[in-house]
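3.2 Worked example (two chains)
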Amino acid sequence: MKRIRSAIQLNPSPRTAKRLGLFFTQTFFLWMFFTAGGLERLAEFGLIFGLPDVDVKLVAFDFAARWRHGMTGGWPLYMPGFFVTAIAVWFWVYGLTWRKMVAEYAVITALAVLVAMLLAPHSTGLVVDAFQLQTGLQCKTQEWAVAGRVPGQGLFTLINWSSFVGACQLSLVQKSFRPLLLPAGLSLLLVVIRPFTADEFTTFWFQQILQGEVVAIFSALLIPTIAALFIWTLPSGKIGLRGEPVP
């Protein structure tokens, strides 16, 4: 057990592997957001058809929101983008100075946005097919595109989530709640700019757990498991911001 902990324990190196891990997980996170945005764009342009008494736009937006959170469409895990990004951020952020942290994050995130934007139009068919199969509504096929506001919402959500994970680590390392002030402020702003708020999807998640939905239960159990793993990876003793032991 000690050898396992030593192998995964946080340390300031190797940086390249951590940067790549952050890039790939951020790209996946944003890809889910941008891909679901293609369905929302179809709804905005009136390219989804159904019965007259069905609010197809509301149905489409609700489905897109759940799909990007892994809560519909056959995903094997709820919030997959959030889980993998949290793991990558936790290991990447350790030992970085504030300046290095901001600089690396800005470059890696910009690349992730670019790649996700390039991939999204080619994969929107995945969410559209799942939507048509589940709802019975029909979408008029056209060249896929992402709704204009989606990249900004997805990027802000990613920044907010990453800052929360990084702040949790700094809070534990520094034994202070002050690092959590930034993600707290960003979370309040996120509630304003995103219609599908944390309250809505956590309520849905809880309902699915009560109904015995296996993926919902497994995903919920994964939260404390990963949190415990994160704490377990912290080196023993007092650690400075750069990952150096403090006497």
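3.2.1 Second chain
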Amino acid sequence: MGILYTLDHIPPVSYNPGDDIVRDGQRFLLQQILPAHELRWQVLPRSKPAHWFDRRGRLWSWVKRRHPKAVWPLWSLVSACNANRLCECDILLNASGPLLYFGNRYHSRYEPWSLLLVRALRQAPRVRFLNLGLGTCFPVRGVLAGVGRLLTPLHRAFCRQMHAVSSVVVCRERTAYQLFEGMHLSAYLLPCPSLFAADYWKVSPARGRPDYIAVNFHPAGTRTSGGRTGYDPVWAQALQEILNTLGRRYRLKLVFHESLEMSLATRCLDIGRWEVVVPSSLREFLAIYGSSLVAFTARVHGTYAAASLGVPSLTIGSDSRLTMIDLLGLPHLFWRDASPARIVRIVDQLVAEAEGWRRRLQELKERTLYQYVTVLRRVLDIQCWRESALHG
């Protein structure tokens, strides 16, 4: 009983655990109100929306082969004429990153998959779409000037459409929440579900006092600001100074979320004197962050992975996803404003206050779990949902 589909981004290269952390945090939350034996999980890849309608993707292949320059417009027409796989499920979860982007008429960096999602859900009105951890990807400078100035009529229309097909909207940052609030659309504001990924995997905080700082960085500032292979010489020089200074005070462990990120850092910086790790599994990823004293990272889900195990972090960012960190109460900086001296000073302060942060983050998790469970029980109306599933 209860077939749950998770819409999930499958990285095209190497292994990127960010979406996995969100997905497994959501799984843990659902398991708190529904017995695990009642849940059957399947993944529908964001990068292959054809599989939402056509199990083998044969129509998708035909469209790509015949009309490679018109794939998405054609597919949006083809999808309207085919059976919708989402009709087979009871609950849909989104674990594919921000649904709200700025500067693209399709509201997505790569393709209008989010518009196809709205269409698919309109064809499946019985499906409960739990829009947990909804976020944005807007320029930081634009957010400071006011979210309202960034939005076009198309953005606003899309937000209304997305809200209409969602059983509940839980925003993971204030930027997204203010966007819905400004349009008088109901939404909740809670930390990202990735805060519970460690609980799903039953990874516990390290025993005793950890002895290293987990460091994740990108030579272009962030992956968003520079792309997968970007490089900023000024920031790279600043990073080298930061690593040298911190390396004289603490043991460092450099944690890269994918092999390409590590290769780029190796070419741009001298990192041979420190331990370098590219986690091969989500459990290893969580254990590395959870066993650190503090973390300094350019990935928001690196911060959430650490926070899930009581480890405080300093986060560097380049877009509105950085505001996710506000809900944890942890420090964060726009990468262009992050001088080496300022970063080192904040890391030193986190080290000095690490024990206090562990207690605060644990209390935050307990409060957040209670809030999520309360919201989900109310939205799903568990007893009624079980009866309707039982009778078909």
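3.3 Remarks
Confidence is low (pLDDT under 50) at residues 10-14, 104-111, 383-387.
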